[in-house]
């Protein structure tokens, strides 16, 4: 049993991580400022004797005791992280310094949720961890991309200066239940649009690619990286099967049985043209590979969104 701090614990990935940690017997301190997180994601854990919730913003110092820290606090969808870009930068810089300071004081191991966005609009394909990336430092995505890059740099420098035990995971597009229906990411948008019988909004020509990892696979990879003693990362965790956004839209229409059609919308600035993880490191270091196909993952995710819609319509969702 370990005392584990999860920042961003009321968010999509954080809440699934809290579930896994509680299930295996850890003591969990969940910290969240509820910018994009929701109480409904962790309501089932409130009152559990090994679960504690603190409403807190990591941009301000935090004094708790923990043996392990998972730092997931940061809005992840372009719509959310561009809402207040300066705040997003503060979360990944000042917030990261606070979390590294906490790890140092507690002598805790800290894992940081970095992102495939550190590769920007990549010139090499698939993306291997040795690739340094192609990021526009002054574009609309830079608050997130550069924030995550400086967070990685902070980790490496704390390790060098203070011997802090770090783990860096680079997460590629992940989806599943509890991804906020209105957060603007492609999987949630397409499923909600299909279930409501609205047009599926494909940005640009829809030929840009992403690789979609089901949340359970992602959490498994994250735990494996944290729990082993040899490697600090960075490690790509994602599903290396690549889809165009048009293919995704068609899969969602098929899986929902919707009569929705596809409508094209302008491509946002600096939208990466393609993205696919090289997961050879994760295979070799963590013996990890994704298990869930897109079809199976979509089925589970769609079932969850149907339930959200049903509760919203009956007025019971909060
Ligand atoms: P999410 O928006 O659902 O979760 C982020 C959580 O962090 C939310 O609960 C939010 O309220 C909280 N938060 C934000 N700023 C905070 C602050 N300053 N202090 C305290 N809490 C704060 O997003 P997610 O998809 O669960 O992403 C979790 C982490 O994983 C993020 O760091 C994100 O960058 C990273 N990531 C996710 C993906 C993905 O596809 N889901 C891909 C790459 C990286
Ligand atoms: N996208 C789309 N329609 C939408 C939302 C997103 O076609 O309604 C596209 C978006 O332009 C991008 C891809 O889907 O090419 C993934 O977008 P998302 O915001 O989910 O994640 P990210 O761009 O950060 O990978």
Order of helices and strands: EHEEEHHHEHEEHEEEHEEHEHH
Number of helices: 10
Tally of DSSP β-strands:
13
Mean pLDDT: 97
Quote the beta fraction.
15-25%
User: What is the CATH topology of the domain at 3-175 and 213-239 and 271-290?
Assistant: Rossmann fold
General form: globular
* Spatial extent as radius of gyration: 19 Å
Q: Which strands sit side by side, in order, in the main sheet?
A: 3-2-1-4-5-6-11
The ligands bound in this entry are: nicotinamide-adenine-dinucleotide, uridine-5'-diphosphate
- Give me the CATH superfamily of the domain at 3-175 and 213-239 and 271-290: NAD(P)-binding Rossmann-like Domain
Uncertain ranges:
none
Q: Given this structure, which CATH class of the domain at 3-175 and 213-239 and 271-290 is correct?
A: Alpha Beta
- Could you say what the CATH architecture of the domain at 3-175 and 213-239 and 271-290 is? 3-Layer(aba) Sandwich
Verbal overview:
- The protein is of the alpha/beta class and 318 residues long.
- The chain has a domain at 3-175 and 213-239 and 271-290: 3-Layer(aba) Sandwich (Rossmann fold).
- It has helices at 12-23, 78-81, 85-92, 94-106, 142-162, 186-196, 215-227, 245-256, 280-286, 294-313; strands at residues 3-7, 27-32, 51-55, 68-71, 109-115, 165-171, 174-175, 200-203, 209-211, 213-214, 235-237, 242-244, 262-265.
- Helix 5 (142-162) links the parallel strand 5 (109-115) and strand 6.
- Helix 3 runs parallel beside helix 4 and helix 8 packs across helix 10 (294-313).
- The longest helix has 21 residues, at 142-162.
- It is globular and about 55 Å long.
- The mean pLDDT is 97.
- Bound molecules: nicotinamide-adenine-dinucleotide and uridine-5'-diphosphate.
């Amino acid at each position: 049993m370990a005392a584990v701090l999860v920042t961003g614990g009321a968010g999509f990935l954080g809440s699934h991580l809290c579930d896994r940690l509680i299930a295996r017997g850890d003591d969990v301190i969940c910290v969240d400022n509820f910018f994009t997180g929701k109480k409904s994601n962790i309501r089932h854990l409130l009152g559990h004797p090994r679960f504690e919730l603190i409403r807190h913003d990591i941009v301000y110092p935090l004094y708790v005791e923990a043996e392990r820290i998972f730092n997931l606090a940061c809005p992840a969808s372009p719509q959310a992280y561009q809402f207040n870009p300066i705040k997003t930068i503060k979360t990944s810089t000042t917030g990261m310094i606070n979390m590294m300071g906490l790890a140092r004081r507690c002598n805790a191991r800290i894992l940081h949720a970095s992102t495939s966005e550190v590769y920007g609009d990549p010139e090499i394909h698939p993306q291997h961890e040795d690739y340094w990336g192609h990021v526009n430092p002054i574009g609309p995505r830079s608050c997130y991309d550069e924030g995550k890059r400086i967070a990685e740099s902070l980790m490496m420098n704390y390790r060098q200066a203070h011997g802090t035990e770090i783990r860096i995971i680079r997460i590629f597009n992940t989806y599943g239940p509890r991804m906020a229906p209105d957060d603007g990411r492609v999987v949630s948008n397409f499923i909600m649009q299909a279930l409501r019988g609205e047009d599926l909004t494909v940005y640009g020509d829809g030929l840009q690619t992403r690789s979609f990892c089901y949340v359970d696979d992602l959490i498994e990879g994250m735990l494996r990286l944290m729990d082993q003693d040899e490697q600090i990362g960075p490690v790509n965790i994602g599903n290396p099967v690549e889809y165009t956004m048009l293919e995704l839209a068609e899969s969602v229409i098929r899986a929902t049985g919707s009569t929705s059609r596809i409508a094209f919308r302008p491509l946002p600035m600096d939208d990466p043209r393609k993205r696919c993880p090289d997961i050879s490191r994760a295979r070799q270091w963590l013996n990890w590979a994704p298990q869930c196909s897109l079809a199976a993952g979509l089925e589970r995710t769609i079932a969850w969104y149907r339930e959200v819609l049903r509760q919203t319509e009956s007025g019971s969702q909060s």
